[in-house]
């Protein structure tokens, strides 16, 4: 049975006591540029660092990647590769421009990290990412050729390396990610 993402957020009531301020399902964001993939943008803190308390900053979920000191909490459901093979692609430059514009509108900044013309999905982000496999299985591939299979319960600390995610199984895989915007020393 697939997990249905739900976000529960605590806050403060008028008397300063903790209260539930949100408890609701989260709808996925999809885009034709990422066929079959579902993104659940749950929460994030502004760049520069998080605050808590009655005057905490409002959540930030976009742009997709946090800047230095910001955070993002998201779930990503990866479809099986077999579900993507043979899907129609853009038939003209105009179609491709429309597809690109759609993903930029819905998930600003996401595609900026991917390498143009590289179908492998390799990308590099300036984030420290904590990932947890919740459903299915997913392969993490690094540019060195190293690969590791993730199954439910596997935790990954992704430290800004060039990488790609692959679902080689026959069912969707769900990953939870906490991304922390970082600086890359030169």
TrEMBL record:
Recorded superkingdom: Bacteria
Protein name (record): Quercetin dioxygenase-like cupin family protein
MF annotations from Gene Ontology: dioxygenase activity
Entry keyword annotation includes Oxidoreductase: yes
Native source organism of the sequence: Nonomuraea jabiensis
Keywords: Dioxygenase, Oxidoreductase
Annotated InterPro entries: Cupin_2, OryJ/VirC-like, RmlC-like_jellyroll, RmlC_Cupin_sf
Residues forming coiled coils: none
Signal peptide feature range: none
Domain Cupin type-2 per the UniProt entry, residue ranges: 113-178
PANTHER family reported for this sequence: CUPIN TYPE-2 DOMAIN-CONTAINING PROTEIN, SLR2101 PROTEIN
């Amino acid at each position: 049975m697939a997990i249905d993402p739900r976000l529960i957020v605590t806050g403060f009531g008028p008397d300063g006591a903790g209260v539930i301020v949100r408890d609701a399902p989260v709808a996925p964001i999809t885009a034709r540029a990422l066929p079959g993939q579902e993104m659940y943008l749950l929460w994030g803190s502004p760049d520069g660092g998080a605050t808590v308390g009655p005057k905490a900053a409002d959540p930030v979920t976009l742009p997709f990647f946090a800047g230095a000191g910001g955070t993002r909490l998201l779930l990503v459901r990866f479809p099986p590769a077999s579900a993507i093979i043979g899907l129609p692609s853009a038939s003209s430059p105009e179609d491709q421009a429309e597809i690109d514009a759609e993903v930029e509108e819905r998930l600003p900044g996401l595609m900026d990290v991917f390498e143009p013309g590289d179908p492998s999905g390799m990308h590099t982000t300036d984030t420290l990412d904590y990932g947890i496999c919740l459903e299915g299985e997913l392969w993490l591939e690094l540019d060195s050729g190293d690969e590791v299979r993730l199954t439910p319960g596997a935790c990954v600390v992704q430290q800004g390396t060039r990488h790609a995610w692959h679902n080689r199984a026959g069912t969707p895989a769900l990953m939870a990610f906490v991304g922390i915007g970082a600086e890359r020393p030169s």
